[in-house]
Every structure is written in structure tokens, then in C-alpha cells.
Amino acid sequence: MLVKLNTENIVAVLIFLFFFVYPVLVDAYSVMNLAYFLSMVFLSLSLSLIWGYCGIFSFGQAVFFGISGYFYAVFTLNSGITTLTPLGLILGVLIGGVIAWILGYFMFYGGVNDVFVGLITLCLTLVLETFMGQTAGDQWMIGQVNLGGFNGINSIPSLQIGSFILTGNSFYYFVLLILLAVFIFLKWFEFSKLGIAVVAIRENRERTKLLGYNVPFIQSLVFAMGGALASLSGIFYVLWGNYITPSAFGLASATIPVVLVAAGGRKNVTAALLFTVLYYWFSQTLSASGSEYALIILGLVLIVAILFVPNGLIASLFHAGDQLFFREHSKSLLRKKGAKTL
Amino acid sequence: MNNRKKRKSLSLLLVFVLVLAGILSGCGKSSGSNDDSKTIKLGVLEDRSGDFSLVGIQKYHAAQLAVEEINKQGGLLGKKVQMVAPDTQSDNKRYQEMAKRLILQDKVAAIMGAFSSASREAIRPIMDQNKMLYFYNNQYEGGVADNMTFNTGAIPEHQMVPLIQYMIKKFGPRVYTIAADYNFGQISAQWVKKTVEANGGKLVNEEFIPLGVSQFSSTISRIKKAKPDVLVTLLVGQDQSSFYEQWSKSGDKSIPMASTVNMAQAYEHKRFAAPALANMYVTATFMEELDQKYPSAKKFVDKFYKKFPNDKYVGMEAESEYTGIMLWAKAVKKAKSTDTDKVIKALESGISYDGPAGPVTIDPKTHHAIRNVYLVHTDAKQKVHIDTEWKDVKPDWLSKEKNVDLTKKQEAKQYTPLK
Amino acid sequence: MEDLLYQFMNNFAFLILSAIGLAVIFGMMKIINLAHGEFIMLGAYIATLATKAGIPLLLSILLSVVGVGIFGLIVDRLIISRLYGRTLDSVVVTWGVSLVMQQGILILFGPSLETLSTPLGSISIGGSDYSLYRILLFVTAIVLLILLYLLFTKTTFGLHSRAAMQNAEIARSMGVNTNRIYSFTFSIGAALAGLTGALYAPTMAVSPTFGGGFLMPSFVTVIVGGANPLIGPSLSGGVLGVVSTGLDATWGTFFGRLGLLVVAILVIRIMPLGFSGLVEKLSVRKSRG
């Protein structure tokens, strides 16, 4: 049930193969750059999980991204012991998950749903940005670490396992392996028993509730998983740049994952992965060119993508590929889709 | 069916275009960066779009002007200087990406740039890690002690201390501060407090305004109630500059204002109709109005507008960027190499450039600039008058109070007067 | 006391005027317009440039309303009309629109514009000066709410659009051209944003990021107000105006701003449908009782 022969899976395998040989093909800069893109993929996957699978529209995955980034910074800088950095990573992810759970509990058990979840999370991330922005003073010390206000915290230690510091290629492979694990987990989760209930909630909350599922519980659970994934992304971002600022909570950081997942194809994790990497690469290339038209081109591409490919750019390509090469599958898929929308 | 087909072909087309555009721009980049041996590359990171573009574009243009002049005079070490300048889009993440790109892929000899302190702090550790020579050509809150970093802009010793002394002497001891609620504002406000107390004044209130706030009615009413002798404004960004228009309509214009960021940086006196910026006192290391009195300033301003006739102002950050690049060029010539250690040694030899705002000398111990400071004020029509000038003001807080000596000791941190 | 009243009037006008265009579009069409700030910015540019060209301010303001309204109509016909009913896709598209508009204005007019002077001068009450123009903004906000109320309750368009808002299917089957209603609504929303931009242009720095300062307050006002584009903003503008004036006067600007966001979160948690939901509930109860 897991490895079906269709365009998406073939592409996924090819992408990961490409990622694994990539460092052999290019220079050190490009490897670190891709490591950064891959770090941001976790953020897209977190939204793909909660929005694409479970239908929870969060506009504030940046909340968990930022909180865990700050946690890792404060924890590792305070401990001063570099071998404790893996513990910082694990605790950061757990804390992100727990905070997401609490927030989810607060929302889903209170009957907040749909676009209102998006609005609450958006407000929350803006609260955190406003708050963190003014923490430059020395009253904002946690242990020996100043929260740093708008300028943020820098010189955050890299990950160290034993006496081995993860930088360059080793950091890249570390991120890639975790990405692969998360990816396989998400693919498995989609068709697991819980995953099917999750999709049922997306399609119809009322009906799923009547079937005896504890909808708020499952929603909170998935939201917590999403929070943990976003946290992973935040910590990887910190590890990549050794730096974090309140702009991690800002409107732009909150919007980009939504844009990526919607434009790539939100019900499809491979699409989210591929589109995130392509988007970051494309927008970076535009920015490096120094062209004043960079942002205009970016905006137009997004508009055109949504208008002409409403189910997501990459997801639609997968679908087209299925129709070309795997007629049988796509027909049954279509039928399934038709049934869903009815 | 037909419709669906059409849609599909369109989507394929779109992807094709996307990929093509990317490949093309990628190619353009790499083919341009192959002639390593004939040029010296200089990285410039300035915001040409987004919130900070008001100053970023000025600085980018100043950098273009400087590089053009260096090349006109035969370049450096017999090579042409080639500027590599991505647009950092007022985005700190972008700063990090592009700093790494300039260092590792373009292999530039030095990097100039950054406007906000947050952007500088984002890239400073990257410069340290990669042993990259970095010039932060901007006015800021002071305190950076870093072997790889040089600053040619104004810091509190240049601006704040003379300004507050002058204001208290002329108008009276009661000072009210409003400042942007982030690092620059908080640290600068601390400097105001320190200087006010040292000069026998009294700080009646200090108020911090979050970035992005554009409505000031409550702040204005608090200031009016306090009736200070001097109002110090350390407001940053487009939103906060709206204060002046609102203050002129419902505030008390007889209270003189003093600032270290406004006018010289973002030319508020040219952007707002009088009397919004009337009765304002500013200490600056450069303003385009210095051309009334100083020939070197006039020469620079004329050159600038000749090359960029559509620009609206040449402020102190543009001058810092220009002077920073000229100082770097002079150091490269002196070191006869672009090797980072050698250029740093040359810069630490007390190198000096006679620029648009008078001589600018690098202070070896702190890597900041010894330079002239000018005090100007505006009349009711917002015309700028030059009042006083202090020559060769030393940036010595770091070396005197924090025992920093970058020629002897390795450092990579920012000291603040907060602690 | 008159100081606090003046501050409240300022805050209320700012919240209402920044939110009104967004509220109309979100309430009637369920489109989240992330380019709302840029529509406001466009209004400010048109008003400023027109006034600089010698057109009287009042006429320039009118020109921005019409100009941004037409621009909204074009955006709707080209883009938004294909997204009716797709709330979340509208986030992506309008974000794209905002990127294009902001950078487009930067390329066309540079990073800043010379700002107009606030007209009308100031009046002196109890020894303190108050800007007459800002008091007029408060009056304008209230007049605007009344006009919209009349538009949506007393005209055929209002009747049709309320029908489309409650149930588009049934409205269509009754012969209402919902697409035309939506187009018109979007361009009214845009025109209102243009008005806001034009009204605030003489009091603020005009730049391509002009709209940024409006976005957060406008979203908070709409969230707290809920779906009804009239009851919502008026009530939430009032409540938020009191909250932020109070916090601001007691603890300073930072808490005034933080307070807005915290109130928004609490309101969604306690009554997800905002004040409109509350009012509807109450009126239903009243008509039953």
C-alpha cells in the first residue's frame, strides 16, 4: 500500500537520490545552500501535514519555528557545553510540539475551526514578533543570554555529536537523513489508521464525529505533530545561520509556508517538498541577480500558478504524469477524487 | 475535456518558463564570474527594495560612484574593481544567504554594506567564520568590537555627546526622549540618559515606540504635559517618521527637537512639508546641505547628482559608503595585496582619506572612524543652517571604558552601555 | 479628559478606516485580501501626486477613491473573479498582488514621495492644540459607516449582496447575478481602501511600504468584528479603540499595540464569529423571546 508506482513516488525517489549525490557534484557553498532550503522544507511539510491532511489552516507555523529557534539559542548558549547541543535540538522539538498541543487544545476543544484558526495563529505570531522586538534591554536576560531585541541572538553554537561538529557536508547529510525519515513517516501516516481518520476530519468534521472519533483530540494531536515539525525547521535554520531574530515570527515568515504549500499542492507532501526547494532557489537567484524586477516576477509567478493550476503546480504535474504513463491509476484516482468532492 | 487539456499544457508551459528563467539567470551569473584574475571583486550588500530602500538605494549608488572612480583612476593593483551587488530586500535571511554566496561562490575581496543593525548582526558572524574583511558603513548605536569589522559611520561619541551638551547649554536641562523600541533606540536612549546626567540635566521621561507605529496622539499628549526644554527624537523607519507631521499639528512647536538619525539619514526635512521638521537640531557626519560651506562636500554632491540625476538626497550613509570604499582601496594599495590580513594591517596603520566630509581616519584600536561632526538646525521653513563643527572626534568609548584594543586582542562582540 | 477623548477619536478613526475596505471584501466575499495595505498605499500615492499637480485636496481624494476602485475592478476581473469561494487560495494570490504593487510603485516613483502638509490647522481647547483634520477623520469614519449601512440595507444592490453573502446558491437561483455583485463589492472594498490611503496621506510618510502600518490593525479589527461588514467594524473599532487608548495612556505605546493582538486572540477563542456573531445571536434570541 505504501510504494505505489506513480509519478509522485518515482519523482520522490529521484529527488532523494539526487539530494544524496548532490555534494559530489557541486562546491561547498551550494551544499550549504541546499541544506538551508531543506531546513525550510520541514516548515512546509508541517503545514502540509496539518492543512493538507487534516484541513487545519494555520497561518502561524512561524510561531513554533521561532519559539524553538529561540529555545535552542538560549539553552545551548546558557549551558555552554557544546556536547549538550543535541539535547537542545530534541528538547526544542518537544517544546514546540507541547506548545502546539496546548494551543490546539485551547482552539479545537473551544470549537475554533477553519479560517479562524488561521487568524488566531496569525495574531499569535505577530504578538511574539512585537514582544521579541523590544527585548534588547538587560531586563530581558534568560540566564546569561540576552534575548537581543530586534537584532536577535547570534553566534549560536552548531550541533555537536560527541566531539564531532556538524558543519558543511555532515550538516547537510544530517538534515537530509532526518528529512527522509520524516518524509517516509508522513507517507506512511497518510494511510495509517490514524491518518485515515485525519483525512476524514478534513473531508467532514461532523460526520467523523458521529462515527465516534474524538475530533478535537485528533486535531490537537496532528497540530502538535505539525508544531514539532515546524520546530525542527526553526532549529535547523538556527544551526545553518547560527542566528535568529524576531523577523522569524513576522508576517512574511508566516505567509511564505502558506504560499508554498498552496501553490505546490497542499494535499501532497512530495509537491510541498519540491516546490519549497524550487521556490527558495528561484527567489534567491532573482535576488542575487540584483534585478529590481525580482519581487515582481515572484509575485506574478505565484498569481499565475494559482490561477491556472488551482490544485497546485507540482501536484498537477504529478497528475498529468500519471495520466500520461499510468492511465489505470489515474483513472481510479480521479474516481476517488470525484467521490470525495461529492 | 478540451478545457482540461488546455489547462495542462498551460501548466507545463509555465514550469518550462520558470525553469528556463532560472537557468538563464544562473548562466548569466556564472559566465560573468569566470575572469577572476583580471578583476578584484568587491561585494556590496544593500537593500534596494523593501522597508530600508530609502537609504539602501542611496548607499548602493554611492558604492557605484566610488567603484567607477577607482576604475577611472586605473583600478587597484593594475586590476579593475568589479562590484557584485545582490539585492538584500530588507530581509535578514537574505543578508545571510547573500553574504555566504559572496564569500564562497563569488570569492570577493571584501564586503561593504548593511543598513539596519539587525542585518549587520546577521552577517557579522559569517564574516568572522570566513575571515572576510567587512565594512559597515553606517551610523549606528556603537559598541561593535570585531577584528574583521570596520565602521566608517557615526556612533554616539560623534553625535550624541556633542548634541546633548549643546542642547542643554542652549535651551535648558529638562530632556524628553522618544525612541524606536529596539536595539538602536534603546541603546541610543541610554546614551542620552548618560550624557544628560553627566551634564547636569534631567531626563523627564523616555518613551519607546514599537517599530511600525504610525499614530502618535497619546505620545504627543504626554510630551505636551511634561513640557520639556528639549525633545530628543530617535525615530526610525517610514512609519515612525509620521510623528513629525502629527507633532506639528497638535504638538508644541516651540520645543526644540534634537536627533542623530533624522534628516541626515532619511531626509525628513525634504519629504515633509514645513513646519513638520522645523526647529530641529541634528549632529551629522555629512549632509548634502554641507555643500553651502565646504567645497569637498559640494564636489561630492555634484558628482553624485550628475551620475544619478533622479535621486532625491545624498545623506550621511551614502557618504560613509563612498568613504568606506575609498579607505579600503587606499589600504589595498598600501598593502599591495587584497589578502585580508595584510589589508587589515594597512587599515590599522591609521590610514586616512580626505573625503567629502573632511578627513576620515581609522582608529586602530576600535576599527571605528575619527572624523568631523557638524551641528545643523532647521528654521521655520526647514532650511538647514550649519551652526558648529567639531574636528576629528575620536570614537574612544570602547578603548577607554571597555579596554578594547583590536590590534592586540581578538574580539567579536557588541558592547552596550546597558549593562 | 479631552486629551483621552481626542486619542480615542484618533484610534477609532484609524481602526475603522484601515479596516473598512478589508471588512467589506472579507465579509461579503470571504476573500482574505493581503494586498489591502497596498490598495491603501495606491490611494495615498494618487492623492499625493494629484495634489502636487495642483488639484485641490478634496478632488484628489475623490480621484483616489475612483482610481483605486477602478484598479480593484481590473484586479477582480483579471484575477479575483476566478477565485470566488476559494478563501485560502486568495491568500496566495493577493500576497502576489501585494509584492507586485509594492515593488512596481518603488520602480515607478522611487523609495519615497514628498508628503503633503496636513490641512485645516489646529484648534485650541483648554490650552492644548488638536488637529482639526484628525477630528474630521473621526467624523468621516462615522459618516462612512452610516453610508455603508444605507447602501447595504436600503438599496437593491444591498439586498442582493446580503442574499449572496448568506447563501450564494439560493441567491443565484432567485436570479441574482452573484458574480456581478462580487465584482462590484470587490471594487467598493478597493475604493474604500483608496479613500483611507488618500485621507491619511497628508498625515504620514508616503512610501511603497505605506500600507504596512495599516495591515495589522485592519486585520485585528476585522477579526474582532466578525463577518458582518457593518456591525463588526463599528463595534470592534469602538471596543479596540477604548482598549488601546486605555493601555496606551497607562503603560505606553507598546502595550497599546500588544493589547490589540491579545484582545483579538481572546475574542476568537470566546466567540469565533466576533461581535457580528454575538449581535446575531442576541437578535435571534430577542425575536424569539
From TrEMBL, chain B:
Keywords: Signal. Residues 39-381 form the Leucine-binding protein domain. The keyword Signal applies. Gene3D superfamilies: 3.40.50.2300. CDD domains: PBP1_amide_urea_BP-like. Belongs to the leucine-binding protein family. PANTHER family: ALIPHATIC AMIDASE EXPRESSION-REGULATING PROTEIN, PTHR47628. NCBIfam families: urea_ABC_arch. This is Urea ABC transporter substrate-binding protein. It comes from Sporolactobacillus terrae.
TrEMBL record, chain C:
This is Branched-chain amino acid ABC transporter permease. Belongs to the binding-protein-dependent transport system permease family. LivHM subfamily. GO terms for molecular function: transmembrane transporter activity. It comes from the Bacteria. CDD domains: TM_PBP1_LivH_like. It is a multi-pass membrane protein. GO terms for cellular component: plasma membrane. One of its GO terms (biological process) is amino acid transport. The chain crosses the membrane at residues 12-33, 53-75, 87-110, 130-152, 181-201, 254-279. Coiled coil: none annotated. Keywords: Amino-acid transport, Cell membrane, Membrane, Transmembrane, Transmembrane helix, Transport. InterPro entries: ABC_transp_permease, BCAA_transport_permease. The lineage of its organism: Bacteria, Bacillati, Bacillota, Bacilli, Bacillales. It is found in: Cell membrane.
